[in-house]
């Protein structure tokens, strides 16, 4: 196989793996392609709930044709016994001749052992093909393994002067239907949707994915130090998808009991200066297995995550209207300092979505 052929099939494996984003946590979203010559014999990606893994799905498609084949996997095959047998063992048993991977798995249970097992069986192993592309797709899983926290995508939908509502709080709708539909697709590609208590009190949002057919709903998370939250639509919708509440140790027992009775899961975390400590929140979510969190505000929560350098990506939707200085800003106060110290991001993408503009930024 040429280097260009390796890149082409690895790009397909990465794209297949991306189909699992938002559906496979705490597992990584992996893709696998099995090839004989130029013919694809099997394709697979990690299935909903995290299993089966990509490799056995692709091997089942390839059948006996996998013997002597080349296998492209977007992450090192696992080598440990969990709820399923090791994928490295499955590849050895299938008699494949060569395995090409994009990344070594940093999970201490794997971390090179999958590659070593393949080599010990006489299988040729090539690593690092399209590593940067695989890193970007696996950013959430890699963040949880390396830093103990999920990656955070902050979504801001604003007027072109940076406001999210009028002075009276009216906010429906600043952006158009195309942008709102795209936001539902973005929710579906994350493990969880996160908002602050102020957003729940003001809007009582459902935070579900709608208009995308039947799929696994993301975890709906509300951060509220005192759990002073209305038992409204969100509480009533717990059967539609899990609801988690991040709260302080001093939250009233009556409020805790009421939300637990509604079926919500409560996660106590340490408090910081003006509310919950943002690093403690994300560590708690990482310990719970989440890899990708989609934060939809409000302004104080967004500012606290930005100030703590915990936002990995910002997705902005800018609408063609102005609300003026009296409108509500998209961000709460940030610590005062020099311009050079301000949270800074690098532009990745910009495009029109209906009558609005999408711009996507990655932490510099």
Plain-language structure description:
The protein has 364 residues and is α/β, with parallel strands linked by helices. The chain folds into two domains: 136 residues, Cytidine Deaminase, domain 2, CATH 3.40.140.10; 216 residues, Dihydrofolate Reductase, subunit A. The strands form three sheets. The chain has a nine-stranded mixed β-sheet with strand order 11-10-9-8-12-6-13-16-15. A five-stranded mixed β-sheet has the order 2-1-3-4-5, with helices on both faces. Strands 7-14 form a two-stranded antiparallel sheet. Helix 3 packs parallel to helix 4. Pfam families: dCMP_cyt_deam_1 (PF00383), RibD_C (PF01872).
For the sheet with most strands, the description reads:
9 strands, mixed
CATH level-1 class of the largest domain: Alpha Beta
And the CATH topology of the largest domain? Dihydrofolate Reductase, subunit A
* Low-pLDDT regions: none
